[in-house]
Structure formats: C-alpha cells, structure tokens
Amino acid sequence: MNILAEIIARKRLQVAEDMARYPESDLRARLGDAPPVRGFRAALEAFGPLAVIAEIKGRSPSAGELRPDLDPRDLAREYVEAGAATLSVLTDGPGFGGSLEFMVAARAAAGVPVLRKEFIIDAYQLVEARAHGADAVLLIAGVLDAEQLARLHDAATGIGLDVLVEVHNEAELEIVAASRAHVRMLGINNRDLKAQKTDLATFERLAPAATELSDFLVAESGLRTRQDALRMQAAGARALLVGESLLRSPRPGEALRAMLHSPQDATRS
C-alpha cells in the first residue's frame, strides 16, 4: 500500500468520526457567518504571469519534520510580504502536522485567499472547509473516480469555493477528462507518490494534454530555485505551489523572493 492509500484509509475513519461529532447540518448553519470568499484564481491571475501559492505545513510523510516550531500566522505574513499571491494550508494532522485552526489563523493573518489542502473524499469536508473560511479546496484525481470528482467539484463550486484539481500522471488526466468538470485550475504534481521522488519533467510531459482540460495550470512539488520556476513557466505553468523548499529554509520569505526574482531584480531594487 502506498502512502496515499494509507492516508485515505485513515481519512475515511476520521471523516466518519467528524461527521458524528459535528453534524453537517451544524456546519451548514455556520456558512452564513463565514467570511466572504476571496477569489483564489483571481488573486493568482492578478499577480502576473507566474504566481506562487506558498504552502504551510509542519511535516510530511516523505520529508518528516519540516518546521516543528511552526506558527501559521507568522509564516503566512512572511510569505505574503515576500510576494506569495495565495496560501495553501495542510489541514491533515497525523501526516502533515496541520489543522483547520492553522488555516483559520493563516487566513486571518495574511489577507490573501487560502486553499484548504486536504484529502477530500466526502462533500462534508467541503462544507467544513467553507465554514472555517476556506476560499478554495484541493481535489486529488488519484483518490476519486470520474463520477466522484464531478460531484465534489460541483458541490465545492456550489458553495462558492474555487477548486484546484490535482493529477500526477496520464491515468489521472483521463479521470479528469471523464468527469467533464469545468476545471478552472489544474495542478500537475511532480511527485511520484509510490516512489516518493520528484521530477520536473512530469509537468513538462503532462502539460500539453492538461491544457485541453484547463486554461490555468499549476506546477506542484520539486520546485527549489528561480531556474525551476522559469522552467515550469516555459512549460505552461501559470502558478507554482511551493512548500518544502521554503519550509526547510531558515528564512522562508527570502527563499520565496529568490524564486520569484532574478538576482538582477534584487540589485536594481
């Protein structure tokens, strides 16, 4: 069983427990008090030709502890000051050291749209996300069939959320195509979840077919340098989702600036 399958098996149990503890009817009653949605894709488009979605998480199954002293508020502010257009916040606790409370805190501190990055398998999690102020959610094609993806995509947009659909390979692109969902943002993850290795050539390989499904591509994982960013832009990326390389840096804001700007830009400023 690969890491993703293990996470989904655990997530099914967690969602069932959450639904028993906090009924969906209670969450829906909170939607009217949720803060207004901040347009996630709109913020990325407004940033320019290549925007960054900066990620907040404490650890990952593949990398272990990344920032044991993580303060989501401080990190959110640092990212935005450095030029992040939006944020992605992991809300899975056991695998990634996150929580819904982290997402709420980061959104309040940063003033930019926030994506709930989670392993979503049930519409309950979408209502939960919006009730806690999420502006967007992630749907992973690799854990859903075409019918599930279409249903969850429609449910998310129906409550005002933007959706980032994520694929890792050609088979998952076929799931997205079969879903016939109107995918406004399509992320291509460069990480092979079975081998737990990243290769930027994954985006380059999948991008031509992906552009048939969405006009807004996001490159995810394995991005470390300005050269990596430019390589993904040249292959068709409109935005980058960057996490581990920033989180491993003692100064995440400086690492983000270095990815967004050439040394010549820094010298001129």
Can you tell me about this structure?
By secondary structure, this protein is of the alpha/beta class. It has one domain (3-31, 39-268): Aldolase class I (TIM Barrel), CATH 3.20.20.70. 48% of the residues lie in helices and 18% in strands. The protein contains 14 helices and twelve strands. It has helices at 3-21, 24-30, 40-47, 72-82, 93-96, 100-110, 123-131, 146-158, 170-179, 201-210, 226-234, 244-247, 252-260, 263-268, and strands spanning 51-56, 59-60, 64-65, 86-90, 114-117, 136-140, 162-167, 186-189, 191-192, 197-198, 217-220, 237-242. Strands 1-4-5-6-7-8-11-12 form an eight-stranded parallel barrel, surrounded by eight helices. A two-stranded antiparallel sheet has the order 2-3. Strands 9-10 form a two-stranded antiparallel sheet. Strand 6 (136-140), helix 8 and strand 7 (162-167) form a beta-alpha-beta unit. Helix 4 (72-82) runs parallel beside helix 13 (252-260) and helix 8 (146-158) packs across helix 9 (170-179). The protein is globular and about 50 Å long. 43% of the residues are buried. The mean pLDDT is 94.
